[in-house]
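Weekly sync notes, structure subgroup
Attendees: PM, AL, DS (notes)

Item 1: joint prediction request from the bench team. They want all three components modeled as one assembly rather than separately. Inputs as received:
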Amino acid sequence: MRVAPDTVSALWDRLADEVTAGRRFAGLFGSARPEGLVLSAHLAGRDGVTMAEAVLPATATSYPSLTPRLGAAFWYEREICDMFGVIPQGHPRPEPLLLPQPPDGALRPRPGEAGGPAAIEPDPRALPLHVIGPGLFTIPHGPVRSGVFESIEYLVETPGEDIPHLNMRVFYKHRGLEKRFEGMTAADGVLLAERVEGTATVAHALAYCHALERIAGAEVPWTAALVRVLHAELERLACHLDVAVRLADAAGLAVATARFGWHKEHVLRLVGRACGSRFGRGVVVPGGVSRLPLTGPGELLSEVGRLDRAVTADVAALMGTASFLDRLRRTGPLRPQRAREHGALGPVGKASGYSDDAREFRAYDAYPSLGLRQPAPRAAGDALDRLRVRWDEVAQSFHLLRQVADELAEAPEGPLRAECGVTDGRAAGWAEAPQGEVLYDVRLEDGRITRCHPRSASFHNLVLMHELFAGDILTDFPFIEASLGLSIAGVTR
Amino acid sequence: MWALRGLRNGVVTTRWPARPDPYAAAVRGPATVLAQPADADDRLDRLCPAGAISAADGAVRLDQGRCVQCGRCVEGRPDVFGWSEGPATAGLWRGALTVPEFEETPERLDALRSGLKTRAAALRRSVHLRHVDAGSDGTEEWEILALFNPVYDVHRLGIFLTASPRHADILLVTGSGARGMAEPLRQTYEAMPDPKVVIAVGTDAVSGGLASPTYAVTGGIGDIVPVDVWVPGSPPAPFSILHGLLLALGRLPAGAGRKAGSAAAGEGARP
Amino acid sequence: MTGFSAWLAAGLALLAAAAAVDLVAGARRHLLSALPYLAGAAGSVCLVVGGAGALAGHRATVWPAGVLGPGTAGLSADRLSGLFLVIAFGAAAWVSLGFANWARRGGRAGSGGRAGSGGTNRRGLGACYALALAAVAVFLTAGDAFTLLFAWEILTVAFYLLAGFERGKPDRPAAALVTLAFGKASGMALLAGLLLLAARSGSLALASFAHVPASGVRTTAQVLLLAGFAVKVGLVPFQVWLPRGYAAAPGPARAVMAGVAVNVGFYGMWRTLAVLGPPPGWATGTLLVLAGLTAVLGIAHAAVQNGLLRVIAYSSVENAGLILAGFGVALVGATIGDRLLVAAGLLAATLQVIAHSAAKSLLFTAAAGMESAAGTDNLDALRGVARLAPWRGTGLAIGGLTLAGLPPTAGFVSEWFLLEALMQQFRVPGLGFRLVLAVAGAAVALTAGFAGVTFVRLIGMVVLGQPRPVHPDLGDLRVGGRAAVVGLSAACLALAALTPLEIRVVAAGLSPIVPATATSGALKSPWVLQPVFAGFSILSPSWLWIAMPCLFLIVVLLTLGLSGRRLLRVRRVPAWRSATAGVTGSARYTAFGFANPTRRVLATVLHTRTDVRRIDAEESAAHVGYESDVIEVVGWYLYRPLVRPLLAVARAARRLQSGRLDAYLAYMLIALIAVLAVVIALS
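Output from the run, pasted for the record:
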């Protein structure tokens, strides 16, 4: 049955107006509620994240698609179609994204609805070709990749050397975590939020806890805010160093790969010494943090200083290696206009001149009080600029870490967590992960989560991969993939 | 220029397992049962969000294969639970990950060990790894990749990473067993030549972890491929993964296997 | 008539009989359809015997001087003619067997399967084939300018008829016209050159041209003659007709054109050198540079073509460049008076002629009929030839290996000799010659590399590839074709092992140009060869033929021994494709894709254009269109701008053909008056 278009179209009109007015489209998801399927859209601006909703009646099977008006909704609508089975009319490519099933598949997870199918077997069918021409064939990369990578399949349609088009199949490691959130207590939800995208553990936990704290109206104590910033920036360092390791490895610079791997190991060991887990797990809890760092501020300061010197020296050497820079220059360019239209997050957007850093424009925790020292934006948008943006963020992180260490030395004793016991409510929380902004929309009923939607920056950014191949050849592929620095676990959840 | 830069910091590689390594000895593994509680408390199993603790018939048992290292039990009952230290966390059969250990019949253990031993006999000195991600959260991949950085450098032990399963001897599987990856994982297993060894790396792979049960994951990869070595941890530290690898290859002496909760477990193992 | 003369005459008579049988009884009956070709094969064998006799020094004259007309010198074969008779008709004999096989199969496989009537539209092909062979034979034995030109024009007509035989198919008429145009142009050049020489020397006999004093006329004549022969073999900028003409001819006629008849061009150049000596230095330099350019251009196009026939045809262009590079070395040697250098260059060039003749005939014979059976000659459509048609596959593989210059084939030996001859440039005084020899040497070396790529694509993807799931019926060769493949493959392979013998034969054949003792200097010892100059380098293909199989055997035995019985246990599994869920379209490298890096690397030579644009296809999900094309630079930049003025001139000239009787009478009157005036003025 076709839906009465006014509700949903009115929502799309409002979204289009807001986007034209300057807000950024930050996500679209569905929840199965008693009144029907609720489509919720997030818009991000300087004043925070706002939400707009429309309701589809429970019997509706389709609705007019948002993607022709707002291209950034491309993957969001496909995910809604997979989860709920409603077809976006007018969507340019309504293929399954996370749950490949026959079109008349009856089993849908329907997050937001209690219960659900015990098992849904994916039914992958071959994707149709997207390029036509003589002599074309498809090289599948994945899902079992040729190194230690997360499972995703890239289908390169190529005539032999160039890449006119790249296609992706991301459904392989879909874990259905949105259904797993349902029924958990608010406290247990942090544990699962940490495991949505493991390389951005702290950021996801922060976003989730911000949502809970917004529901409860709780204020995080200053010391706890500092510790949160500490772990978030250490995580950012680790992620950016990982990107450098992958790029140096793709370029064949063995010594650079080894050295940056060594620095990354230092960062992970530092995190482990500070909180017991190499990835900062168990630190961020709703209302604050679970404990102070086990390493004192003085030791932190000296460690950070040592790392800073070592990393900066190696970065200077790496960015002076002409053969390496040649591989990255003009590789995988993202046009600034495209980045702005799509609202590209994190370093990907910053390299193309579009910066919407949540630490600056929607600051949280201790960031409003710390000097951010944002670097100048870049314009070319190629892999080299993305790497340069990451080095700028690394320098920024060191600066922040030093401030945090100094502040922690003088921080007052006191409780590390605010009271955050809530039983009902709904709010959105965000944090800036190394990949970009992470957004959580949490709804609590009776102290249990009924709907938790994690939107990671990887999900928002990965769709841009389709457009990055302008005249690049097969050997540029690992550079483009590594320069994006995304985590597939966050894409598929 | 890079060559000189590489020589600047000398040797940073650990000598483990030939020599003891202080970081290895301090690696935090899954939670473990330090002592049985004085009072028979049936509510101990509610401490664990992953369902690892069972407090039935008076004895408290903790399945390390389900432990996600959240620390709730350690903080809640520090008299009963604590962290296991050291890298020796891997087990040769699923039940071996439960602490305190079950009474294992020596025959069963020997049968297991010899089955693995014959297969690994040809692989002792030089072995190639293949990794498949069956729905992990990304951290186990970082820890496996860390094995190849200059600090751990498993190349010195003759362990290499290969791009194709046709050349691989050991299959490292991470992730909770996403249904989308079941068939690719099976195909990878079939593509590997005999003899082959499968190692489940991480709590997600051993039991499904916190992500299980949902409609999209099975409970770990044990149902998809036959697993020889189980390495718990969320994620397991690189030293733990390395311990699991050497256990599979039979390059650890018999006494250097699992000793749950023992701080001396990580020392003195010979290659 | 002495023995060998009788053989020559018998050969010519059999060819005439073949033409007659075809025209009269013509392929009307199924049994007789192969007869012209069998007669042609027998005629070729006779000509080979006759040529061998001439090579050994016996007299071989078909008819003496004066029979065809006053001033003519008759048909007789000296050693050089004998050598080329053996080469050309040695290949022609096997090609004729393949031709007979093809003709018996009754034509296009798709024509309703009526075997008998499939030949009615083949009527006349046998006559054209016999005409071509006869013209070749006459040209090779001609002793005077008139007979030479006569044979040349007949050959041009035969090529036109062969190229345009299947005139119903697309592009055939245009290709035939282009073939004819270039043939006529070469005939014009030959006519002008020979007439200049005849005017100076006062007689039509070729031997008398040697006494023309060195002057501008002699130089002009040399250049014209060389240019005329260069058009035939396909030197840049005359190579544009070769791919179109060869691809247009039906079936094994391509082998006749490309493997047998092309040798007349080389023979003509050899004869020019023998009679007139070397041209001036600038001409030699130009020839060397053009030869290098031809080789590179030919292989660049061969590497990226999508059609099997075009690949093989462009390989002919490449080989023309290689052979003429060797010939250029000989010209340099003749200019500076170094006999050994002449011998080195000519030996290399002749060996390459032999290897090319055998391999090209083999390739075209193996490919004959594949296009009509499969409906297309696209390489991607023809994958898996080795499985679907093993005899064709073997032919393609061995021919390809020979042209790629891989040991232990004859192509390897000839390329080795060629490169060694080019490397002798340090013995040449004067910077100019050294420079052009270096340029030619570099071009030849580059060509060798890309030849490897080209034939790897052909052999690896087309011959050894997996057939498509719905594979075309390629129709394997029958008895005649199989015999042809066996004979020509044996030639390609055995000639390598028997190179010392081959060199002795070639030395005897080249004796009108350079003494046999000089050429035999290539034989360092009974089985070891050197590039005529001693102490430079050695090669022993005969020992290669023993050593390579032995090494292979040793490796196999070692592997079997050390691996226990496990080596023979095979588990057949599909190729590892990273566990993908499946793709529509092809997931394997296509032949087009394999050539893509070459298209990019050689983009300056090929003028590659790639076009990626957004398209809107409603029925499929495709939204990107991709196109990639190469252009033939010489044809595009040199000939295309000339087409319009040529057509304008033709249109203007057509006004003369008014169809009015009084106009034609007026033309005749004007012509008569003009001739009278010239005669009166000159006497």
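Discussion: The radius of gyration of chain B is 19 Å.
Action: AL to compare against the crosslinking data before next sync.
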